[in-house]
Amino acid sequence: MDQERDDLIPDTRDGCMPEVALRRIRFCKPNIPALTTGGYYAADMHVHTTYSDAGTSVREVVARAFELGIGLSITDHNMIGGVLEAASRPVPEPFVPGIEVSTSDGPHILLYFPSVHDLSEFYSHEVRNFLGDSPYLAIHKTSAEVLGRAATYDCISVAAHPFGYWFFDKGLCKCIGKGSIKDEVRRHVQAMEVICGGMSRGLNLRACHFARTHHTGITGGTDCHILRHFGTVITACKAGGAREFLEEIRAGRSVVEGEETGVIGKGISGGVILGRFLPYTLPSIKVHYRQNTPRITRFFRRLMR
Fold this sequence. Notes:
It is a single chain. Helix content is about 35%, strand content about 15%. By secondary structure, it is an alpha/beta fold. The chain has one domain: Metal-dependent hydrolases (TIM Barrel), CATH 3.20.20.140. The strands form two sheets. It has a five-stranded mixed β-sheet with strand order 1-10-9-2-3, with helices on both faces. β7, α7 and β8 (about 215-220) form a beta-alpha-beta unit. The chain starts with about 25 loop residues before the first strand and ends with a helix.
C-alpha cells in the first residue's frame, strides 16, 4: 500500500479552518473570501443542466456562479451542449469544460479539458456515436474503454462519487470492491471526487481515504441538479485559467471544501432527475436491468454457498 498523506486527512469539524494549508479536504460550508485571500480560485466541478437530467438552465447556473464569486464546470451526462452555451456568454473563472460519461458497466467518469475545443474533439470521436436509447445513461463503452481513450487526450479523468450511488453501482471504486471491474482500471484515474454533494458523509470519507492511500489528485463538486445546491461543494486551486487549474489538481495541490446535501434536498433532486428521464423510461429500465443482473446473480450465488 502507498504511504498515506497527512494533508488528505479530512477536517470534519464545524466551520472552516482559517489556515487554508492545514488540511486540503474540509467538510464545511465553503469559505470563498478566505480562499480568495489565500490566492485560491474556487469552482463547483460537478454541475448538471437542462442539457441532461437537471432542472437548471445554463443561464441560471452561470448567473449564480457570478453571484457567489466562483467558477464552474458543467458536466452533463454524455452531453456538451451546456458547455457550448456557457462558452458563448461571459462566464466566471475558472471555467473548466467537462463531461460526465456514464459507462456501460456502471461507473460515471468525470473528464475535464483545458479548452472547449479539446472537449468537443473528445466528444465527437469518443461519445457522440456511442450514445444509447437513454442518452443520459450508459454509452456503449465500458469504464476501461472510456478511461483508456481519455488517456490519449489532453484531459484529467476523475472517478465521480467513487463509492456510490446508493443501490446503483455508479462509482468506480464500488464496482472494483465488488469485483465487477478489475482493480487495474482505477490506475487510469488521475483524481478522486472526495466530496460529492449527493453522497453521504461515510461514502465521501471512503473516497478521501482512497485518495490518501493511492496518491491521487482530489476534486469536489455538488453533482447539483437544482440551483439551490450549486456552490455548496467547491474545488480550489491557485490558478484561474482552466489549463493551469487542471495542472494544479494533477499535481496534488487542490483544496476541496463543502458539505453534503440534506435528505430533503436529495429527495427534490431525485424528483427532478426522474422527471427528466420520463421520456426514456423503457430504455432506462433496460439499462439498469442489464447493469444490475450480474450483481443480483452474484448475490444469489453467494447466498447458495
